[in-house]
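Thread: quick sanity check before group meeting

JM: Hey all, I'm pulling together slides for Thursday and realized we never actually wrote out the predicted structure for the chain we discussed last week. Dropping the sequence here so it's in one place. If anyone has concerns about the input, flag it before I start.
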Amino acid sequence: MVLNNQRYVDLGLGTQRVKCRVHDNFKLIVIADKKTVCERFPTPLVNRLEKHFLNMSSVVPEQGIRISEHLREWVEEFSIVQGSVDRNSFKEGGTFIGYQEDTCISIVFHVIKQMYPNNHKLECVNAVNVLTECKAELLKMVATDAVFRLKNSLLSIHSDVNELMEQYFNLRITSLVEYLEKMIAVEGKNKIGVHLTLATTHSRLLTDRDVDEFNQRLCEVKNKVEIMSLSLQQFQTEQEYTREIQVFLRKEPGASNKTVLLVQCERGEDNAKLVACARHMVEDELKERRREEATKINIFIVFLILLNRQTYGTKFVSYCGGDWKTVHIDDIRSLEYTGMLPMSFVIGKQIYELFEGYQPDTKTFPTHLVCQKMKFTNCIQNAASRLQDQNGSEERTYDRVRDILNILQDIHYSDTFTELLCQRLAK
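JM (edit): ok, ran it. Output follows.
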């Protein structure tokens, strides 16, 4: 609208409308998801706008697009199982957690920028090295059950999957505390810097007690490390969340100058927009902090997102690019807590073989008896409840569970009892 040689636009909030004066060169740019535009935008509004479809292919040169096509073929062969009647039974989104259509080209774009920081046109790069690095990034997002299917995948027809599996287990993170230890050890060598991570998991999120145990373990390894834990579901407004982020960033660091912010979110597939918004707000606060203070900070921010195992078909995006690292951790609790055997030992074994002893490869893995004790302790109540006494007495069930738990915790008889129980189960 033009009035007295001045341009005006209508600004609306709900039913309120206000005329606002704008510059002569004012342009309005609306950025929205294609599906949202088609389903929710009024048709007259869409017709009045000049429309452009923007994706990562628009900013990546032709060589990068060719690399992404090879990477997409590798992802498809990695996911599909040979002889599967339904080729959609195992999809890319169920193999690579948070995988979307533009994930491959996004990874190619960010890997090229990291490997060739001075190559602003992103051209004339070593395609083999870029593709290898992109595959390593994708392996960090792989679900463990997909690795178990790898020998039966289409990729196994023309590639050495054993080498790929070995690479996966070398990169695999067995627990969140292990990842924090490695991140602080490697990234924390620099006294300054901000380290951002988005971690996905299928196990239940951490409680306050779990966070305290993590803090104690980190302090034993890396002097004093302070952990602040938040849940996105605990906030009612954006202002409350922003205030907590500001409190964390302005908090005086401890003696080790290392602080960790852990932001947890349930049902990530339903809260994809909430997670993305929370990430951008953290980035905005970090920029504001850098402008306000000349001194640098050394902090670690981890977003821990709980996802359903059937994540394909959702809008959740795990790979963020930029300063963010992406990892998938099947079980965020340590092996000592869960009693789970190392996946590198379990793969290719029969069920009865899992109750036989094994020699841990490293000191980080608990012994065979410790794993079996934890396993029996975690499942004894469920197992005992399936037994039915002839007289139907519930007290007998309670007594049975109490007696078995007492034996497993007894320092004199627990090892012998566990060994005998494993021998019976192995037969």
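AS: nice. Confidence is low (pLDDT under 50) at residues 358-366. The radius of gyration is 26 Å.
JM: adding both to the slides.
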